[in-house]
Write a structure and sequence with these properties.
Elements (H helix, E strand, L loop, with lengths): L2 H9 L2 H16 L9 H17 L6 H8 L1
Protein name: Putative addiction module component, TIGR02574 family
Organism: Cyclonatronum proteinivorum
């Protein structure tokens, strides 16, 4: 990365750095296909989806959960 750019970022105050981070994140998030998903993330998601399918009948609707616990 350009050292001049890094120096400019270092001079930003905390609020400006947070805004910069938000802009950068939004830029990355706007193209999700451009961010590769590691294989171990895919395997964890697959396992959780399998568990969801297997245990679907054991769950409760959000409305029932709210009435019981909130």
């Amino acid at each position: 990365m350009d050292t001049v750019l890094i120096q400019k970022i270092d001079k930003l105050n905390r609020q400006e750095k947070l805004v910069l981070m938000e802009v950068l994140w939004n830029s990355i998030a706007s193209e999700p296909d451009g961010v590769p998903l590691p294989d171990h993330h895919t395997s964890v998601l697959d396992e959780r989806l399998k568990t969801l399918d297997e245990d679907f009948e054991k769950g409760e609707s959000w409305d029932v959960f709210i009435k019981k616990y909130i």
